[in-house]
Structures are given as C-alpha cells and as structure tokens.
Amino acid sequence: MLKPTRKLLELSALPGAILLTVLIAFLSLITSKSFVTAINVDNSDKYGHFISYFLLAYAWLYATRPFSKISKTAVVLSTIFYGIILEVLQGTLTTDRSADIFDILANSTGVVLAVLLFKRLDKFSDENKKNCPNK
Fold it and tell me: Which residue ranges make up each domain of the chain?
C-alpha cells in the first residue's frame, strides 16, 4: 500500500471507529418503524447485526493497532459487551423493540469472525513487510 494512503487510513481509523460505534447505537435505539423493510428474508435483521458488529470490531481492532497496550482480547470483550448493553437498552428504553438473545449471538459471531480475519490479514501484512522492506 502506498505510504500516503496508509497514513490516511491510520489517521481516520479512530474517528471512523467512534463514528461507527455511535451509528450502531443510534440504529439500535431508534424506532423500528424508521426502517424500510425492502429485504423480505426470515431473520434478515440477524445479518444486519452480524455485519454491523463485524465492521465495528474490525474498525476498533484497526484503530487500536498502533497502541500495543490495548489487546485484541480487550477490543473483542468490549465490543461484545457493547452489543449486550445495546440489546438490554432496546428492551428497556424502546417501546417497539425488544432484547433478543439471537441478536447478541449474531453480534458476537460477527465480532469473532472479524478478529479471525484481522489476525489473518495482520499476519499477512507483517509477512509482506518483511519480504518487501522498501514499502
């Protein structure tokens, strides 16, 4: 990757992760009537949960990458805990939404797969840097 592009990604990673965190909270707590149901697939919201938390975990893993003191485990546990908190808030603060254990499962699955992909790509990136020191 070109150095200016890599630098831009590194600079925007933390604000991007924060923005995604806020966006997920907003989408989790607004009324379900606000959603357009163009997709008519059983449990399609589970796909949304999976994708949202996959992206959230990956964003935070990437954003915290330069800080060696923040472990991947801390990011994973925090992201899963965040999903649980939002599900509880859905059940208590909203009138037309409810907490769902299967949403938590979809969230957690997205987080775990994001970590696995991140580790794989991070390892590949490190190997690539070793083999191509000019980059």
Answer: 3-32+41-131
pTM score above 0.70: yes
Query: Tens digits of per-residue pLDDT, 39-82?
Result: 555 677 899 999 999 999 999 999 998 777 778 899 999 999 99
Distance CA 48, CA 54 (A): 10
Q: In Å, how far from its chain's centre is CA 108? A: 10
> Phi/psi at 27 (nearest 5 deg)?
-65, -30
Q: How far apart are CA 14 and CA 61, in angstroms?
A: 10
> What whole-number distance in Å separates Cα of residue 90 and Cα of residue 62?
28
